[in-house]
Design brief:
five-stranded antiparallel sheet, Immunoglobulin-like, 4 domains, disordered C terminus, disordered N terminus
Amino acid sequence: MLSGAPIPARTAFAFGFIAALLLASPAAHADPWNTGAGTATGDVFVSGPAGAQLLLDNTPTGLVAPATLKAVPVGPHTVGVRQGCMVSDKAIEVHPGLIERVDPVMAMGTSTLTIGVNIDGATVTLDGKPLGTSPLTTQSVTCGSHAVAATLDGYTQSQSTVETHAGETLTVSLTVTRQQVGNIAVDVTPVAAEVLLDGKSQGTGPRTLSSIPSGAHTVVARLHGYADGTMPVALGPDDTAHVSLSLVRQAPLTQRLGLNKVPWAKVGAGTGLTLLAGGAAVGAVFLNNEAIANYGTYASLTYADSPDAYYSANVGTPRTLAWAALGGGALATLGAGLVWMDVGGVHVFAGSKTVGVSGTF
């Protein structure tokens, strides 16, 4: 066919028909999930949980559950569901023209944490639990908030709080710095006294406490029988603080309680008299009641004999003795009370001219 010659109508129709078929074919349409897969597609319905973010093959779809993923290329895929720290990843097979249903089973997600410390040999903890010493390998942690810390003798602690999300990888860098320290020279008397720094024993006797972190501290000297000696210390960097503590002997416990002034002989006598008086009083009441009971029994048996003679011998005399015992017990009790008052620090002086009160032993 010559260039520039008109194309026959039948030929032009044939070319147009072929072009229309090519444009209408599935290969001419863009892949909505950018997978580069084949032309056949299906749909995927994710039932929940409500509001969860949906992913397809680890790529966010911009949809939230419940939702249908449209025109997913045929073949194997992974449907991801993310809601806070809860995750679900389910492998599915998409078939042409069909709808695959996914009912996620959510579980706590994990993340990857890499912890770096500027100095090797530092102890690293995660949420207060030791992980090991730096340098460390990558750690798998649960999703959420975590406290990371690094400590090393002679260095300040470095700590950080990180918030991890399911499936992500985080790197935490911790920097420990050398502490500023000083010394505390302690002189203590008596030399047997124990020395404590901030409540921790440092040994006994005069000594120098070395490499103490600068700042506020408290030095205490302690020895049995002596009052504690205490001194606060403000320690500067590379400084040597001097502390001198002289302990003062404490009075014996009996003296501090005043027991050394108690006349123990009087206490014993007063206790004995009190017990005697109480026994006499109880005995008097018992004898009196017994005599009355006996007289009533006798009188009920016979009235022919002389009840007066019986009363005099078996009731009157015991009753008199009972009252006498009761009176004696009362006097004894009064005497015991005076002794106890003496023990308590009150002296009663009874005389023809003077009745006085004194608190002196």
